[in-house]
Amino acid sequence: MKTLSESRCFGGTQGVYSHTSQVTGCDMTFGLFLPPEAENEAVPLVWYLSGLTCTHENAMVKAGAQKWAAQEGLALVFPDTSPRGEGVPDDENYALGQGAGFYVNATEAPWSTNFRMWDYITEDLPRVLFSAFPLDESRQSIMGHSMGGHGALTIAMSFPGRFRSVSAFAPITHPTASDWGRKQLTAYLGTDESKWAPHDSVLLMRKRGFDGPILIDQGASDQFLDALKPEALAEAMMARRQQGIIRMQPGYDHSYFFVSTFMEDHIQFHAEALYD
Amino acid sequence: MKTLSESRCFGGTQGVYSHTSQVTGCDMTFGLFLPPEAENEAVPLVWYLSGLTCTHENAMVKAGAQKWAAQEGLALVFPDTSPRGEGVPDDENYALGQGAGFYVNATEAPWSTNFRMWDYITEDLPRVLFSAFPLDESRQSIMGHSMGGHGALTIAMSFPGRFRSVSAFAPITHPTASDWGRKQLTAYLGTDESKWAPHDSVLLMRKRGFDGPILIDQGASDQFLDALKPEALAEAMMARRQQGIIRMQPGYDHSYFFVSTFMEDHIQFHAEALYD
């Protein structure tokens, strides 16, 4: 693992690191914020999964999460959204290929060699994080934005007991029925839709739900609402009696201006679960 | 109007009053809490509509709302849930007749003479309240529990501009498709289901929505969940991009122990809208 930079931030440290991943077959970069408490003890960790086109950097510089994480004594990790580099396949469409890993393990050519973001986020990066930093593996929560909200929700529901809480800003909720999903799942996983189901939050909610609290924020002026389908997830959460809060926020769009506005609420929500 | 009782309560006054209603053709009793500020000025008013079997008294003594209303300087009105008295029809089923007005104007015999709770709550009682008490008609919000949540939501959506916010505890959301609804709407309004539609929150949400914020709380251990159908309202609210918050609260049932637990949040929610 290489340290690319470390900066003092709200009394803690915002670092950027890279490591060679055996899972994605390329170098991967991530951001990690450690609060002041990490100098003395292992601290809880909140994952932030980013959306389409993002690298590890977007949320790290635009979401305004460090202030609240510092107050609550929480670490934040900002992974990249896909493998990258010259030998890694890409597509001219921003919603496929580099910057658009969709948090799945691709099985189809040309993607299957590198695009294994499911295993990267759930196995490879945790191994790096918990061996190299003072992080308490028994206290983790996860959140994300848009495609990253999809990643956070699907991963949280697929690893019962690992995450105490999950939240999402404007998540892609139902990719098997969405323009943001069908094309990508076809490319990465093939045409057999039964392979898609484990990567659809609405279907996972109907089948098993999440064993902790969920917080969802959605902007009512989001330009991508038709692709996000919050109504499908809301229906599924209520039908399952899933512990959770769903909020429709009037006037807000899909940007980091929306994310940063409600970041304090999300960090406090996770802190409450992590210090329970 | 007769004063039945007035008691000091959190520095304000909890009164119980009765008046002869031309609309329901009988004497009607209501509770009214006035905060200390009402001695000097007209104060905002929050309506609380109760559920099946309740009188004006249940929420007044069990919901714990006065403490928060006093802090926020809000008045609270607790109307009865139906006409009552010896000449008023009734049914042996607790969910029809006295204590079960469903906030509609009955058109069918034997109910049509007295069971006009829609007009009572939206015309008759407001006339009494705003002529006799220091209440600011331009600042009103409305909430309710169960059948009263149904009343609050349907009335709020049907009078755009009258209420700044609406909230509900475990509301009956979709009575045209519920065991708590189809029987009563048939009895009160007849078999033509087009007459039922204006009294169904899910259908109203799909058609027009509410021009302000909505807060819904639902207990996940509510013994009546199948009749309440929060999933239908959640889906309709999100599909409409309705400003609002929906919360599924694990472990809570349908009782006033649930209502009183979250009453502070609801009063603060309304206060924010009323003092905007």
From TrEMBL, chains A, B:
Catalytic activity of the protein: S-formylglutathione + H2O = formate + glutathione + H(+)
UniProt keywords, alphabetically: Hydrolase, Serine esterase
Listed GO CC annotations: cytosol
One term of GO molecular function: carboxylic ester hydrolase activity
EC code(s) of this entry: 3.1.2.12
Superkingdom of the source species: Bacteria
UniProt cross-references to InterPro entries, sorted A to Z: AB_hydrolase_fold, Esterase-like, S-formylglutathione_hydrol
Active site: S146 (charge relay system), D222 (charge relay system), H254 (charge relay system)
A single BP term in Gene Ontology: formaldehyde catabolic process
Root EC class: hydrolase
Function comment: Serine hydrolase involved in the detoxification of formaldehyde.
Record NCBIfam families: fghA_ester_D
Family assignment from sequence similarity: Belongs to the esterase D family.
Annotated protein name in UniProt: S-formylglutathione hydrolase
Species, as recorded: Cereibacter sphaeroides (strain ATCC 17023 / DSM 158 / JCM 6121 / CCUG 31486 / LMG 2827 / NBRC 12203 / NCIMB 8253 / ATH 2.4.1.) (Rhodobacter sphaeroides)
This protein's encoding gene: fghA
